[in-house]
Amino acid sequence: ANKKLWGGRFQAPTSKEVDQFGASIYFDQLMADEDITCSLAHLHMLAKTHIIDQADADQIDAGLRDIQADLKKGNLHFSYENEDIHMNIESILTDRIGPVAGKLHTARSRNDQVAVDFHLYVKRRLPKVIGLLKGLMETLVTMAEQNVETIMPGYTHLQHAQPISYGHYLMAYYQMFKRDCERFEFNQHHTDMSPLGAAALAGTTFPIDREMTAKEIGFGQVYANSLDAVSDRDFALEFLSNASIMMMHLSRFCEEISMWASYEFNYIEISDAYTTGSSIMPQKKNPDMAELIRGKIGRVYGDLIGLLSTMKSLPLAYNKDLQEDKEGVFDVFNTIIPSIKIFTHMLQGISVKKQNMYDATTNDYSNATELADYLAAKGMPFRQAHGIVGKMVYDCIVKQINLQDLSIEELKQYSTLIDSDVYEDLKPETAVKRRNSLGGTGFAQVQKQIQAAKAELAE
Ligand code: ARG
């Protein structure tokens, strides 16, 4: 005989290694509270629709609440023989209240049960991620506000390109995290949908009320198709994909923070509280947190690719393969929540070495575009101006001076269009201030962006 909840059809017990290998209780016990919550909703609906007697329902209700209380206290014991969280809870319930427990699974399958638990798990946690991202965005706005007029080199190809406002740089990341938030919000729209009542795959002959269970659990919608309801893991894939994109943004930021804290750049200093030392080199102050967050992207991408690969070519509807959907999602929540939190705290403790940033824009040729624009504004075709300034840069490199070091007489040898007002244009602060096109680094534009961001965050 086979003593499993589903053992009736079997003559012999399953092998121990099948039990061990097939079990998901090792990790899906993290959804215990979701499982009980969804079972309670299902139970109340069964009673309301007279599918089971109210007296039986009351007994089951009390039993489930008892289990929920023990779960909070950490008093439940799960076993791999009961395979997963669903059958573990049902088996504990049966131990406590007897065979009436068996009525709970009327008009339900583990296929819609696991799906609804998993949706609820993600639905409950997405707001945490969105909230942390909003906190990070607020920090960025605060820092940007203090640094609208902080001048730094802007890079392309990691070469000095044009000077920019550090506030503008910070707001660039604000915009990325804002889109990340929007993606997670859209993700919530797809997660906020109840598969419960799809039963095994085809729905049920019992007169269930899916809207009722959805409402009690707190879902905004129900799945329209029972096959889709038990097969869909898009909401989890979207989460993993959104998390990957968000971590990609964080990793770029972390990379820049690590570079800028280096001796070579020396633009910023990370606080002692968010750096670490070396066990051998006494002078070291390492940006460990930035590196670790940058490194954690590996597992997040891995979890995304893992589930995408598991889902590929899976026939409808439920397949045991789908049991592989949960660990990656749990892992990603456990990875991104502390990553955003610690990153935000690290950012708040960064001090900016404004003079070093500024100096880096005066010992280079990042004002070359200003000079070419100056000539173009005086009527010279831009291409010709570009050529002349290129030659000037070359001559200055040979002489080991910068463009602004050339005397007015020397400048005029390149073009008679140049007057002494050019020196004002060659200053980095002028270059930044004047880039006032929409979304540009000009101080007024950065202020505008900050005001818009504040309004968005206040909503
Ligand atoms: N532990 C299973 C999972 O995580 C629950 C669903 C099992 N359903 C089934 N028909 N075997 O996917």
Key features of this structure:
Fumarase C, Chain B, domain 1, binds arginine, Ribonucleotide Reductase Protein R1, domain 1, 19 helices, Fumarase C, Chain A, domain 2, 459 residues, 6 strands, two-stranded antiparallel sheet, mainly alpha
CATH architecture of the largest domain: Up-down Bundle
- What small-molecule ligands were found? arginine
Helix content: 55-70%
Can you give the mean pLDDT?
97
What structural class do helix, strand and pairing data support? mainly alpha
Percentage of β-strand residues: under 5%
The low-pLDDT segments are: none
CATH topology of the largest domain: Fumarase C, Chain A, domain 2
CATH level-1 class of the largest domain: Mainly Alpha
Radius of gyration: 31 Å
Kindly report how far apart the N and C termini lie.
Answer: 62 Å
Give the number of DSSP strands: 6
